[in-house]
Amino acid sequence: MGPLKKPPFSGQPSNQIFDAFFIVKRVTDKNENFSNVSPFLVEKAITGSVGTVKSTKLIRSGDLLVEVASSKQAQQMLKLNALSTIPVSVKPHETLNTCKGVITCGRPLNLPNEEIAQELRGQGIKDVRRINIRRDGELIPTKHFILTFHTPRLPEYIKAGYVRCSVRPYIPNPLRCFKCQRFGHSKTNCRGTLTCARCAVAGHESTGCTAIEKCVNCQGEHTSFSRS
């Protein structure tokens, strides 16, 4: 009896785990890009080199964003050094080839994150982080895990050993400014007024504040950093 194979990625073959998005740049000393290059030439050159891809887009920088359809095309893209007579460089997109999801594992996984990630690597998982909560000053591990997938789209489920776990989208906490307490920017880029995170009054920090709690954002009777 041969060695056991690792479970496939939600029932899909492992050759479907590949970088799907690539940035294509012109290699030139004149700071040229693809803005003035014929889209017909680009289309013919890409199709002639790797076959029909899912999409090709001209992005704001003037580079090309190419989405491939298969592992074979992904390998061919990385070997590409020219489109027609135009020298190019190709690299995977820095963010579009991964996504994050959350699982809740009812069975205890009392293992380090690195060991769990190693066990799940065959399912296209690059990183695992357990969600911890703080209670009475103590950090308590939960049964929830944030998984980073080497794929732009989440699978329906993964298998942790014999346990099948549904995958749901990971929604990170919104960025809150520690100066004005508003959402969407950091303290470094804040143009607002220093505001207390406890009472929502401008002009002082929350350290030592004993005033009645009030949220800057919703005007509710809780602090601006409350999760409620």
Automatic annotation (TrEMBL):
One of its GO terms (molecular function) is zinc ion binding. Residues 176-191 form the CCHC-type domain. The keyword Oxidoreductase does not apply. Keywords: Metal-binding, Zinc, Zinc-finger. It comes from the Eukaryota. This is CCHC-type domain-containing protein. It comes from Araneus ventricosus.
